[in-house]
């Protein structure tokens, strides 16, 4: 089966190889999602990102079955080389949020103290609620510790999670699910919790709960929401850095 | 404040957007400098490259070293792509789906439920806390919180 090589030598567990398949698959599943979203007139389960994720994993799973290798092996050798190239562009895309932030510098200058206080106090309250909800649902200490740092960007959330006795892979998963959920449900959640009356709060909430994807959503809602979500992404990550380790220590998680 | 907003807008429309390659160059430069700063932070206090880059880009804009027209087009383009750029992260879950099944199906389901609840909790608690602090500024410190 030499044509297997077109997918980056799927039968070879070695990482590396051809990136074309991963890039093509990412674009194909996302565009299918976009099409489904359009013909279903915006049904929330057909959000392009969600469809892309589920369909992408499903296609990889089918192909892994077909080639008789495990899904992680097939992912590593066939998809990851291309996926990593697209993933890299999240770096410049994240710093791009400095622009909507600067565009509403007037709001930042006026409310910087309220913004920072809200994020610190809001984060601490959220930590308590998340801790007790996890406990109520019967998660063990390792899993609870993995839930605490998910508000930060993945590159901060993972090491902090490891440092407080959690599993970094679970935290990374939580960050991804946060983003996908917020992108799909933001409009619905804003409506039922009536967050629209306060654009500053809505923006900070979207940036915290949905990371950069939440910020992209916030930019669509308005310039103030977009700027506030952008500042939330930065400040909440630093807040998690500072607040989560002592919190976990206080709760006796490690 | 409103005039401030208008001033920023006109400054942006006065200029033709800078050539796209120049905009990419600024992004690449900011990222590169940030990647040199990032390792200086201790392991217990990680600050990744893109977070430093966002702060650096904001500082450069606020100090007028970089003008909006030099980065605006690239930034709007990248932000419009975010949902797509996140697809590989989503598919990456194929690599570690076992974390949901390792401790039994029940724990896996509870874990997903907790993550869903945590997302909603973070959104709502942060938004309501902000509304609270805004109300304090308004009522206790008599600060106007009207913004367009």
From TrEMBL, chain A:
<feature type="transmembrane region" description="Helical">
    <location>
        <begin position="44"/>
        <end position="65"/>
    </location>
</feature>
<dbReference type="GO" id="GO:0016020">
    <property type="term" value="C:membrane"/>
</dbReference>
<keyword id="KW-0472">Membrane</keyword>
<dbReference type="InterPro" id="IPR007300">
    <property type="entry name" value="CidB/LrgB"/>
</dbReference>
<dbReference type="Pfam" id="PF04172">
    <property type="entry name" value="LrgB"/>
</dbReference>
<protein>
    <submittedName>
        <fullName>Antiholin-like protein LrgB</fullName>
    </submittedName>
</protein>
<keyword id="KW-0812">Transmembrane</keyword>
<feature type="transmembrane region" description="Helical">
    <location>
        <begin position="227"/>
        <end position="248"/>
    </location>
</feature>
<feature type="transmembrane region" description="Helical">
    <location>
        <begin position="85"/>
        <end position="102"/>
    </location>
</feature>
<feature type="transmembrane region" description="Helical">
    <location>
        <begin position="153"/>
        <end position="186"/>
    </location>
</feature>
<keyword id="KW-1133">Transmembrane helix</keyword>
<feature type="transmembrane region" description="Helical">
    <location>
        <begin position="15"/>
        <end position="37"/>
    </location>
</feature>
<feature type="transmembrane region" description="Helical">
    <location>
        <begin position="111"/>
        <end position="133"/>
    </location>
</feature>
From TrEMBL, chain B:
<feature type="transmembrane region" description="Helical">
    <location>
        <begin position="47"/>
        <end position="66"/>
    </location>
</feature>
<feature type="transmembrane region" description="Helical">
    <location>
        <begin position="78"/>
        <end position="97"/>
    </location>
</feature>
<keyword id="KW-1003">Cell membrane</keyword>
<feature type="transmembrane region" description="Helical">
    <location>
        <begin position="20"/>
        <end position="41"/>
    </location>
</feature>
<keyword id="KW-0812">Transmembrane</keyword>
<dbReference type="Pfam" id="PF03788">
    <property type="entry name" value="LrgA"/>
</dbReference>
<dbReference type="InterPro" id="IPR005538">
    <property type="entry name" value="LrgA/CidA"/>
</dbReference>
<dbReference type="GO" id="GO:0005886">
    <property type="term" value="C:plasma membrane"/>
</dbReference>
<feature type="transmembrane region" description="Helical">
    <location>
        <begin position="109"/>
        <end position="136"/>
    </location>
</feature>
<keyword id="KW-1133">Transmembrane helix</keyword>
<keyword id="KW-0472">Membrane</keyword>
<protein>
    <submittedName>
        <fullName>Antiholin-like protein LrgA</fullName>
    </submittedName>
</protein>
């Amino acid at each position: 089966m030499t044509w297997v090589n077109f997918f980056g030598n799927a039968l070879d567990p070695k990482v590396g190889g051809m990136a074309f398949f991963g890039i093509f698959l990412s674009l194909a599943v996302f565009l299918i999602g976009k099409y489904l979203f359009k013909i279903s007139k915006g049904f929330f389960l057909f959000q392009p990102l969600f469809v892309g994720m589920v369909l992408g994993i499903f296609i990889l799973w089918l192909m892994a079955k077909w080639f008789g290798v495990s899904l992680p092996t097939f992912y590593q050798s066939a998809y990851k080389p291309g996926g990593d190239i697209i993933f890299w562009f999240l770096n410049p895309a994240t710093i791009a949020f400095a622009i909507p932030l600067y565009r509403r510098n007037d709001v930042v200058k006026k409310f910087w103290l309220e913004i920072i206080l809200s994020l610190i106090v809001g984060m601490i309250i959220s930590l308590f609620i998340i801790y007790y909800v996890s406990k109520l649902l019967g998660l063990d200490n390792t899993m609870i510790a993995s839930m605490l740092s998910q508000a930060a960007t993945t590159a901060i959330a993972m090491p902090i999670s490891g440092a407080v006795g959690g599993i970094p892979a679970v935290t990374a998963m939580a960050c991804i699910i946060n983003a996908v959920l917020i992108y799909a449900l933001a409009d619905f959640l804003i409506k039922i919790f009536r967050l629209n009356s306060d654009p500053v709060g809505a923006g900070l909430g979207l940036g915290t709960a949905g990371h950069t994807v939440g910020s992209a959503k916030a930019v669509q809602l308005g310039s103030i929401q977009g700027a506030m979500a952008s500042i939330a992404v930065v400040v909440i990550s630093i807040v998690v850095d500072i607040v989560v380790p002592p919190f976990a220590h206080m709760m006796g998680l490690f | 404040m409103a005039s401030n907003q208008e001033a920023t807008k006109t400054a942006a429309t006065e200029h033709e957007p800078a050539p796209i390659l120049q905009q990419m160059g600024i992004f690449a430069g900011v990222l590169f400098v940030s990647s040199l700063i990032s390792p200086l932070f201790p392991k217990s206090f990680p600050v990744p490259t893109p977070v430093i880059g966002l702060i650096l880009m904001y500082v450069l804009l606020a100090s007028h070293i970089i003008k909006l027209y030099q980065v605006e087009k690239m930034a709007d383009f990248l932000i419009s792509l975010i949902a797509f750029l996140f697809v590989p992260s989503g598919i990456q879950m194929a690599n570690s789906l076992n974390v949901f099944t390792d401790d039994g199906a029940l724990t896996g389901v509870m874990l997903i439920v907790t993550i869903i609840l945590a997302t909603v909790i973070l959104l709502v608690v942060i938004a309501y806390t902000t509304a609270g602090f805004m109300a304090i500024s308004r009522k206790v410190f008599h600060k106007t919180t009207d913004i367009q």
